[in-house]
Amino acid sequence: MKQTLVIGAAGFVGKYLTKELESNGHRVYAADIPELNILDVDSLEKKFSEAIYDYVVNLAAISSVGASWKDPIATLEVNVRGTLNILNAVQKHCPKAKVLLVGSAEEYAPKDTPLNEDDKIEASNPYGITKVAQENFAELYRKKYGMNIVCTRSFNHTGVGQTTNFVLPSFVKQIADIEKSGEPGKIFVGNLAVSRDFSDVRDVVTTYRKLLENDTEYTIYNVGSGKANKLSDLLDYIISLASVPVDVCIDPEKFRPVDLPYLCADNSRIKDFWPGTDIKQTIKEMFQAGLV
């Protein structure tokens, strides 16, 4: 049985990944705050002394672009120094382990066609910049220590349980609350003119598992559906699930300082094992969960 350490296991993606791994024969060691703090070397030393891990996944991060603008220093600390602490612990305790580091589509320069892994890197927000730094350190550790590190550039993903810090859960909660009230209501939104590649979180964690378990030809993989949806269209779909009128109100406070107009993955490298769940089905499940 493969022994897998999932750091950040209590988070939104971590819960899904833990279930995915356990369902496929992994013995999962789940770690998160307060038991494990990736900024505390002693805390990591203790965790890495518990077992010789075959796989290590780092999901611990400040992963909201909006949050990264509010506190770029904390974002840098967690996403870069925290990752370096993990890599050092792996190199010391289980240097043969395969490591999966989760990055972001926010690393890329703007492009109006699907992005592939060879496209220009030019992050335009603090979160994206920290993920570029993470990749650079991963490459350094591959070269210096021969470590087996795979990096993803993950595009937007969502599902039941994601916090309203993210756009689709925010839309769904507001409209589900209006539906539960039985009265017409207003939803407050930011920039609807963007197009994004949204995936079901279950598709994403299936892909993470397969990147761990299979020989990987590349060191970097886009993880996304390969389809871009206009945010305005997805909002219209969520509104269509409600039986009461919903008025859309633009809130300037919800706009980001910089917001890429289009983000879509060229997912050629993972296409053979991408499940391909329809994002509208995912949204419908989120909406139904919000009515409970």
Set out the fold topology.
Elements: E1 3-7, H1 12-22, E2 27-31, H2 41-48, E3 55-58, H3 65-70, H4 72-93, E4 98-104, H5 126-145, E5 148-154, E6 157-158, H6 167-181, E7 185-189, E8 195-196, E9 199-200, H7 201-213, E10 220-223, E11 229-230, H8 231-240, E12 246-250, E13 262-263, H9 279-290
Parallel strand pairs: 1-2, 1-3, 3-4, 4-5, 5-10, 6-9, 7-12, 8-13
Antiparallel strand pairs: 8-11
Helix pairs in contact: 1-7, 2-4, 4-5, 6-8, 6-9
Word description of this protein:
The protein is α/β, with parallel strands linked by helices. The chain folds into 2 domains: 3-157 and 198-223, Rossmann fold (3-Layer(aba) Sandwich), CATH 3.40.50.720; 160-196 and 227-262 and 277-290, UDP-galactose 4-epimerase, domain 1, CATH 3.90.25.10. Helix content is 40%, strand content 18%. It has 9 helices and 13 strands. It has helices at 12-22, 41-48, 65-70, 72-93, 126-145, 167-181, 201-213, 231-240, 279-290, and strands at 3-7, 27-31, 55-58, 98-104, 148-154, 157-158, 185-189, 195-196, 199-200, 220-223, 229-230, 246-250, 262-263. A 6-stranded parallel beta sheet has the order 2-1-3-4-5-10, sandwiched between helices. A 3-stranded mixed beta sheet has the order 11-8-13. Helix 2 runs parallel beside helix 4 and helix 4 (72-93) packs parallel to helix 5. The two termini are 38 Å apart.
